[in-house]
Amino acid sequence: MVVKLTDVAELAGVSATTVSRVINNYGYLSKKTIDKVHSAMRELNYQPNSLARSLQGKSTMLIGLVFPSVRHPFYGELIENLERKLFAKGYKVILCDSEKDPEKEREYLRMLSANQVDGVIAGSHNLNIDEYQNVTLPIISFDRFLAPGIPIVSSNNFEGGKAATEALIARGAKNIAIITGANDTASPSDYRFDGYKAVMDAHNLETNGIRLKSDSSELLKQIEIEKLLKDESIDGIFCTDDLTAVTVINIATRIGINVPTDLKVVGYDGTKLLHQLAPYLSTVVQPIDEMCDVMIELLMKRIEDADVILEETYSLPARVSLSESC
Amino acid sequence: MVVKLTDVAELAGVSATTVSRVINNYGYLSKKTIDKVHSAMRELNYQPNSLARSLQGKSTMLIGLVFPSVRHPFYGELIENLERKLFAKGYKVILCDSEKDPEKEREYLRMLSANQVDGVIAGSHNLNIDEYQNVTLPIISFDRFLAPGIPIVSSNNFEGGKAATEALIARGAKNIAIITGANDTASPSDYRFDGYKAVMDAHNLETNGIRLKSDSSELLKQIEIEKLLKDESIDGIFCTDDLTAVTVINIATRIGINVPTDLKVVGYDGTKLLHQLAPYLSTVVQPIDEMCDVMIELLMKRIEDADVILEETYSLPARVSLSESC
């Protein structure tokens, strides 16, 4: 015998609507009501079936998360945060690691178009804008321009880049280089470079630095960094991500450059993992928790009302956290 | 007009069975055939609908991954590897971060019981064995005992623990302490401790060390580690995970203990991320790629035949990678 929602309602002594609200985590519910319904669901071994709901043209309660790499500390922390918050709202997440694989990203978009998820949060773009534009499901973008009408949530990359550079100058650095990714005009992360440049220009200091391609091998990146560090005039480096900043400090230490006496270093991202592994690193901390809150709130709005008007960008403040490296 | 599988077959000039095989990545297919079918699918904008397949009592092409924390470098690398390999077989993954949340793990198991995924790979166990025993879907376990009949894939924790301890002794350490997690008899990771103990006993050396609870705060763990390090007789430490090993090295450096002259340190896990961030760390490298291959192969066998007889444990060799810290 299949247990029905009305059986749960009867045992819990509440209405069927209330059971549905508990299952979908929707509307105001007292803890007492939630507990009663959960207890009745357990007793009857009731399985709310999202596939069945999907058949009725309703929600699948699945959200797609499309990010370049789950093993990157920043995306790992972001994905974990999103998953936890979406779970609390009754959603499960489908994970798509899209790094360097446009065909994979395209296949996920096809899946979305087939209405197999209720919405998507994407921080990746191997594809051209047209392909994202053709997806009719709700999408929120993290830190990337995907297509017109898809809101972008990010840290304030320009202000973050400025703050990092100002911190280096405040500690006495003058010949400050930047190490950042390939120039990609579709990526707001490049505003970190613009923030650096704005501060250097304002202080009449010369800009300098290298751009590392994301598909370069680690070894090649290290060779380029070592070459830059052997330019003895450099006394400060702003790295637009923390992994590169730690690599810079490791190489500097190996070739006898003292951090921070001879070289001051500031990174960007500020994950808990890097704080644990490299507590000496000064960095710009992205507000991961708040960014996740905003992305989910916007996505829920779009799911409830496909035509809701949203801003083009939601830029949240990043803060500098100083430690021994600067 | 809904595009059907037979439309794709006609345009590609192949049979419907071949199209189905391409979609499900099943059987021998030439690259030419795959390309023809993909090209026809694109031209017609054909969406293979896994929900529709699920309705017909067939596969959902979804696999659940239940792990404690996606932002942990080891699980992040493992999940990324599993996701890539499962995608190549036509599966999408649903991610469940289960850390410290039995109710969440239980909710995912309920979802599995409702036949919403084809199978599960789980490296978590907040729950008692009964609850896993009642799940009838195919499950493969990573490094944890879940229930009788669920095969466990892991690195050879006992041999790994032995190898780490032997490496410390070979480099001249005698007073070797171990830093490991809480004693948990359901977890094969504790065999790393047994390996350490076996080598120490064989050399007539005294065992020593601390167990850190996984739910302790980072600060409390650091205080305990610092207390251990201040015992000046200790000249070697085996940490059963790399994050703790890096924390030990950071604290030692801060309080003036030279690594490796005064203190030799070996970790466990050997992820690419830690190799990048802490290239100086000697560690026991788990064969992540091979373990993922084995887990997926076993899961596919169980999906094809629920009654297939599998071994209880599949233990893969781990290798010591020596660097500056030992």
From TrEMBL, chains A, B:
Listed CDD domains: HTH_LacI, PBP1_Qymf-like
Alphabetized GO MF terms: DNA-binding transcription factor activity; transcription cis-regulatory region binding
Domain named HTH lacI-type: residues: 3-57
UniProt cross-references to Gene3D superfamilies, sorted A to Z: 3.40.50.2300, lambda repressor-like DNA-binding domains
Pfam families registered for this protein in UniProt: LacI (PF00356), Peripla_BP_3 (PF13377)
InterPro entries recorded: HTH_LacI, LacI/GalR-like_sensor, Lambda_DNA-bd_dom_sf, Peripla_BP_I
Record's protein name: LacI family transcriptional regulator
Species in which this protein is naturally found: Brochothrix thermosphacta
Organism ancestry: Bacteria, Bacillati, Bacillota, Bacilli, Bacillales
